[in-house]
Amino acid sequence: MWKKKNKLTFYCSVEGVEQTMPIVLAKEIKYDWIKRAALSFTEKKLDVSPTSQDGKIRHTSRCPGIFQIKNQGWIVRTWQDIELDVNDPEYSWRTPLNQVKLSNDISMDDVSHHTEMMLKQYLENWPENAFSQIIKINTPWYVKVPKGYVLNQFHPSYLDDNRFTSLPGTYSPDYGMGTINVPMIWHSKKGKYLIKAGTPIAQLILSKKEDMPFENKVVDEQFKKEEKVKNILETMNFKRIYKNIIDYYKEK
Q1: CA 48, CA 54: separation in Å to the nearest integer?
Q2: Nearest by Cα to 180 from 205, 135, 143
Q3: What sign does the dihedral 219-227-66-205 (CA atoms) show?
Q4: What confidence tens digit (pLDDT) does each residue in 221-249 have?
Q5: Using an 8 Å Cβ cutoff, are 38 and 61 in contact?
Q6: 18-71: per-residue pLDDT in tens?
Q7: CA–CA dist 46, 58 (Å, integer)
Q8: Can you give the pLDDT at residue 234?
Q9: Of 26, 114, 146, 162, which sees the most CB atoms within 10 A?
Q10: Is residue 182's pLDDT more than 90?
Q11: In DSSP terms, which residues pair with 195 in a beta bridge?
Q12: How confident is the model at residue 13 (pLDDT cuts 50, 70, 90)?
């Protein structure tokens, strides 16, 4: 008997948006700063860090830590332009199309908010110049998460936009179908802003719902052996080749 495969399903309440602005794999999103960094590395050929003690080539465009998290999961984007007019403690907004009407009253207005009673009053270090209420972008998207998993929502990793910070949350099958809404801290108390259609506003990363045993240990002989091997793999070439490390640990 064939075992049914787990699958993450995104539903859209506004017909056509699944074609014009679908939820996409994070690795498909190409930020302009990444293109500039890649060009910089290509032009310089060898970009050795001035603080390097070993003369190894180091460059932002080659950092696995950045791109492993940036490329994980999926990205949610605004499906139409949103104009936001902030004048703390009030705000207004407008969009070209009516999301409520187009979804046949399934989805909410594109923009709403949580009052300051929801979070700000409890935090000691609310950003000084941030809007006092949490702006919430309500998307036309819903998600069905398979049992045994949770879908975590974060601010898009390494997004080059300092106007807002999307707040984290989790969608769990324990609560049925999840409505993909994105609460955010808006980093301004006054001004008019355009959130263009296609702006990344959330990153979704799936993980297994399980308790993983863990321990805290002092460095031992096994650790030293593994660290020595990893260090050789990292430094055996003038140019750091991460594939050497990946291939080695793939066999372990």
Answers
A1: 9
A2: 143
A3: negative
A4: 999 998 898 888 877 877 777 777 788 88
A5: yes
A6: 999 999 999 999 988 888 887 777 766 554 555 455 555 667 766 777 878 899
A7: 8
A8: 77
A9: 26
A10: yes
A11: 82
A12: very high
Output the CA angle 169-77-136, nearest 5 degrees.
Answer: 50
Quote the pTM value: 0.85
The structure tokens listed for 224 are 């030293």
Q: Are strands 134-144 and 111-114 parallel, antiparallel or unpaired?
A: antiparallel
Three-state secondary structure of the chain: CCCCCCCCEEEECCCCHHHHCCCEEHHHCCCHHHHHHHHHHHHHCCCECCCCCCCCECCHHHCHHHHHHHCCCEEEECCCCEEEEEECCEEEEECCCCHHHHCCCCCCCCEEEECHHHCHHHCCCCCCCCCCCEEEEEEEEEEECCCCEEEEEECCCCCCCCCEEECCEEECHHHCCEEEEEEEEECCCEEEEEECCCCEEEEEEEEECCCCCCCCCCCCHHHHHHHHHHHHHHHCCCCCCHHHHHHHHHCC
Would you say 10 and 143 are in contact if contact means Cβ atoms under 8 Å apart?
yes
Task: Dig out the tokens for 222 from the structure.
Answer: 């096994």
